[in-house]
Amino acid sequence: LHLDQPLQAGREIPASPGQAHYLGGVLRRAAGDPVLLFNGADGEWAGRIASLRKDRCTLLPERQTRPQEPAPACRLLVAAVKRDAMDWMVEKATELGIGAIQPVLTRRSITDRVNLARLAAIAQEAAEQCERLTVPRLAPAAPLHAILEAWDGTPLLVGDERRDSPPLAALAQGLPPGGAWAWLVGPEGGFERAELDDLRRRAFVSTASLGPRILRAETAAVAGLAVLQALAGD
Ligand code: SAM
């Protein structure tokens, strides 16, 4: 379980009502049962449920079981797509170890309203489920050109379904180790010509192919992360 407080042996910490419901209502746990805790800074702690009633619960950290892992450097930038696809992408990207996720507003994005709080809650739940010790950072949605203008120079790989881009796997082998890369995927309608031209003229950008088929944005996002994590992960 992810907590927003320092973890110290013997210092009881209140869980959120949602976590209380998850422990009692979903996992059918009870007071005294063991739990694993993390807060993104103090590593993983073994502890116990100190008290659990309907939607009120306190947790008792006992001892550290894993040192804190650094926040991953890798980033996913994805054009805003339909809500269910976005939710699914955030959950899978979290399981695949992404460090940060940013919705990107492009000419053909289907929406410019992204509920960041909802996506952050999905990322936290996915981090708890896969036992990561960090929760991906959700950056506010921003227009593609603004992101490019402010870019820090990290290698930016862009999913390109045309057939003349090099395979992502080949590009991933050439990345510096340590996960300092970002993967950008366009909207269901794809990038516009002007957006692709703007991308291609940037030295830090490489367009990359995931094969001859046209993938849904969420498929391309997750498949690309799997390739990059396997070949150039943190
Ligand atoms: N432009 C496409 C069309 O006309 O049908 C649709 C774009 S696709 C649904 C959404 C995004 O997924 C693309 O912008 C691209 O970033 C990524 N994508 C889809 N297929 C891909 C592939 N085979 N290789 C790399 N990226 C792909």
Automatic annotation (TrEMBL):
Gene3D superfamilies, per database record: 3.40.1280.10, Hypothetical PUA domain-like, domain 1
Gene Ontology cellular component terms for the protein in this record: cytoplasm
Compartments reported by the entry: Cytoplasm
Major place of residence: cytoplasm
EC numbers, comma separated: 2.1.1.193
Reaction catalysed by this enzyme: uridine(1498) in 16S rRNA + S-adenosyl-L-methionine = N(3)-methyluridine(1498) in 16S rRNA + S-adenosyl-L-homocysteine + H(+)
SUPFAM superfamilies: alpha/beta knot (SSF75217), PUA domain-like (SSF88697)
Keywords: Cytoplasm, Methyltransferase, rRNA processing, S-adenosyl-L-methionine, Transferase
Domain Ribosomal RNA small subunit methyltransferase E methyltransferase: start-end pairs: 73-229
Domain of life: Bacteria
GO process terms (BP): rRNA base methylation
Any one Gene Ontology molecular-function term assigned to this protein's record: rRNA (uridine-N3-)-methyltransferase activity
Signal peptide per UniProt: none
All residue ranges annotated as the Ribosomal RNA small subunit methyltransferase E PUA-like domain in the record: 19-60
Known function: Specifically methylates the N3 position of the uracil ring of uridine 1498 (m3U1498) in 16S rRNA. Acts on the fully assembled 30S ribosomal subunit.
Family assignment from sequence similarity: Belongs to the RNA methyltransferase RsmE family.
Protein name (Swiss-Prot/TrEMBL): Ribosomal RNA small subunit methyltransferase E
Species this protein is from: Roseicella frigidaeris
Lineage per the UniProt record: Bacteria, Pseudomonadati, Pseudomonadota, Alphaproteobacteria, Acetobacterales
